[in-house]
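Researcher: Here's the sequence for the chain we discussed earlier.
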Amino acid sequence: MFTVENQVTGHHFKIEPGETILDGAMSNGIGLPYGCRNGFCGKCKATLIEGEICYEAGTPPALSAEEIADGMILPCKCQAMTDLSIVVTELESIADIEVKTLPCKVAKIEHLNADVAKIILIIPGSESMQYLSGQYIDLIHPDFEPRAFSIANAPHNTGVIELHVRLISGGRFTHFVFNELQEKSLLKIEGPKGHFYLREHSDKPIIMVAGGTGFGPVKAMVEHTLELGSQRDIHIYWGVRSKQDLYMSLPSEWAKEFEHISFIPVLSMPDNSWKGRTGYVHEAVLADFETLTNYEVYACGPPQMVRSAANTFVKKGMFENNFYNDSFDFAYQVGEA
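Model: Thanks. This is the structure I predict for it:
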């Protein structure tokens, strides 16, 4: 195993023999820029300061002889032969990430309960989509207007996109997804989009408030923190109508495995067998915390839920700039009625 240091940020990460620098960085939660991941576009160019690298299939076409002489390398294709010191600008915000329109194939459709399906999309060939955990894509089909869906998996394999799609009564597109869309179908996606993403360089404890399929981007964020090895306290509140609407067991599994993660499901329309929390999910947060001053809050779900959380959490001491919500669904500011 080799160590790679980025002299720009001071970040260190380990990579296995035979693993590319880009793959090693991604598996360690380090956001290096890239485009095609195939050695053709050159968007991932970095400068090698110290150490030795090799290219399994020869020098990629994106590097000129002059660039090679100047120490330029392509992390998407090169492998370490020794410990390395490189210079490369890491991605720090959504402004650094290119919005793309890409083809994709439906690899799997799994019905998680009566009205939520997990859709796995594969971006074929040499393409990939770089994104931040929590962002969304537009799903494009020629018979419908584009529909926005949050990405539900962490950005560690950017050739795979997971979506959680809820069947909407009277919704033509979600009806199509549930009843007509087939595995191996071809679609297009456009993204990434949105300002709802994990601020991973913060050390503040986190409260995540999800309503329904708003759990999708929360899942992506938590998976990303686990990949980073972060020990920030994470309190997950998932509000749904009934127990059947808790369509994944992952939050309970995280809470059992990791001391820094807690999970509180909240049901608004429980049956008599439910022994847990009831009511509105934002009210459960208010009941559990004396003050929200030192917390970051990530909220995603129905507009009324997010609006209620925004307005009541401020009264409990939350700073407005520590409140993040799914901006493509909820275009309002903290404090609005």
